[in-house]
Specification:
This protein is an alpha+beta fold and about 475 residues long. It has one domain: Outer membrane efflux proteins (OEP). The chain is about 60% helix and about 10% strand. It has 9 helices and 4 strands. Helix 5 runs antiparallel to helix 6 and helix 6 packs parallel to helix 9. The longest helix is centred in the middle third of the chain and has 67 residues. The chain is elongated and about 130 Å long. The two termini are about 60 Å apart. About 5% of the residues have low confidence.
């Protein structure tokens, strides 16, 4: 018996050394361009907003407070933490199969028989007797000769890494969502300021025109045209106030609170200028995106599970050892002469199972292929998102500059039109048209300023920043 145990232990150590020589993991090769920005010929620049922490990008103090609150209370963030805890617990369950199991057991029997039910084999059994045993299971251990349990543990560890990357993805999304919602809120606030300022100006113009009409200088048509502009500006205000409250409610949900009024920081025109995005960005920056790293960890786990399924063809070798006391009388249970011990080696080899093992191998390979496709798709999607965000970042700046020029021109035109009207050189229609176009242009400029801030948010998100 001892020789058998020694032989099995030597076999286990030898096979463990042989199977322990695993080849280094090589990630799949995916064709990628050298530069993330396809519309520039500038050489790759290692500088990037992805190298900065989120609070170095978004300088508004109130925005930073909202992001920090979302990190603590957002429901998606809390759910991602729970998924990490579950993955770590599963890793502990899987890893425990690599260690021996130690336990204890005991039993006691109190037996009584009738007078006519006594047996004589070969001598009479007492009418009543007590007997029992106490055993310490020294070990129940599966010899992981083929590395099946180690591979299962590696797969579970990769699952943990994937869930941790998923949490970083959630944090990146939370930063971008909160920033986007906050900038939308500040843009709506700015639009409301423009609407109220325009309304006050138009009410004053209507008052003057009414006085002129009462004195016979203006006619009723001009008064009605002025009132039309007043009503036009008035009906915009309730719609903007509704949008503002709805945006506040959305921000409240993002930060894990009930609908409430959101504290404001800098106005839209006073927002701290975000850092410039370099003209050339190397493709290696995408390696920092947590969704890509999560997809790769899922692929690593799938590769390990293929090995686990394949090694089910090999025999399972386990050892069981016990030590304790056993006696037909409880009074003498702990006498040295009643001690028992044993070592039980076991070997189980699958012979026929209806193709279950083979089908399981095919199943795990198919899952790996699906994850490989998802990994490649994730990388290609990341390139598209970066390209979209970079072109948006450049073009929206051009749009904002042109709208600023347009607002300046319309503002001067409106001033001149009202002067000509007051001096009787032109009719009121020219002034009212200029005022209407100026109002619409100012709203469009506010949206362009917001879009310029949001373009930086999109670049930052597409590069996988915000989770450091």
């Amino acid at each position: 018996m001892r020789r058998s145990v020694v032989f099995l232990m030597i076999l286990a150590v030898t096979c463990s050394i042989v199977t322990g020589q695993k080849k280094k993991y090589q990630p799949p090769t995916v064709a990628v361009p050298a530069n993330l920005d396809r519309d520039t010929t500038a050489p790759p620049d290692p500088r990037s907003v992805a190298e900065l922490k989120w609070f170095q990008i978004f300088g508004d103090q109130k925005l930073q407070e909202l992001v920090r609150q979302a990190f603590v209370s957002n429901y998606d963030v809390r759910a991602s933490v729970a998924r990490i805890d579950a993955a770590r617990a599963n890793l502990g369950i899987v890893r425990s199969s690599q260690f021996p199991t130690i336990g204890a057991s005991g039993d006691a029997t109190f037996e009584g028989r009738s007078r006519d039910g006594a047996f004589t084999i070969p001598e009479p059994i007492p009418k009543s007797r007590n007997y029992g045993s106490i055993l310490l299971n020294l070990f129940t251990f599966e010899l992981d000769i083929w590395g099946r349990n180690r591979k299962a543990t590696a797969a579970a560890r990769a699952d943990v890494a994937a869930t941790e990357e998923d949490r970083r993805t959630v944090l990146t999304i939370i930063v971008s969502d909160v920033a986007t919602s906050y900038y939308n809120l500040r843009e709506l606030d700015f639009e409301l300021e423009i609407a109220k300022r325009t309304l006050a100006s138009r009410q004053e113009s209507a008052r003057i025109i009414k006085l002129r009409q009462e004195r016979g200088v203006s006619n009723m048509l001009e008064l009605r045209q002025a009132e039309e502009l007043v009503y036009d500006a008035t009906q915009v205000i309730p719609a903007l106030e509704q949008s503002i409250e709805q945006q506040e409610n959305f921000l409240s949900v993002l930060t894990g609170t009930n609908p409430r009024e959101i504290a404001r920081g800098d106005s839209l025109t006073q927002q701290p200028a975000p850092p410039e995005v370099p003209a050339g960005l190397p493709s290696e920056l995408l390696a920092r995106r947590p969704d890509i790293r999560s997809a790769e960890q899922q692929l690593i786990a799938a590769e390990a599970r293929i090995d686990v399924a394949r090694k089910a063809y090999f025999p399972t070798i386990s050892l069981t050892g016990f030590l304790g006391f056993e006696s037909t009388s409880l009074s003498s249970l702990f006498n040295p002469s009643r001690s028992v011990w044993g070592v039980i080696p076991q070997v189980a080899q699958p012979i026929f199972n209806g193709g279950r093992i083979k089908s399981n191998v095919h199943f795990t390979r198919a899952e790996r292929d699906l994850l490989l496709i998802n990994y490649e798709k994730t990388i290609q999607t990341a390139f598209r998102e970066v390209a979209d965000s970079l072109i948006g970042y450049r073009k929206i700046q051009e749009v904002r500059v042109q709208r600023e020029l347009l607002v300046g021109t319309l503002r001067d035109r409106s001033r001149l039109a009202y002067l000509r009207y007051k001096e009787g050189v032109s009719n009121l229609l020219e002034a009212l048209d200029a005022d209407r176009e100026l109002f619409n242009a100012e709203l469009s400029l506010a949206q362009a300023r917001r879009d310029e801030l949001l373009s930086v948010v999109k670049v930052y998100k597409s590069l996988g920043g915000g989770w450091q």
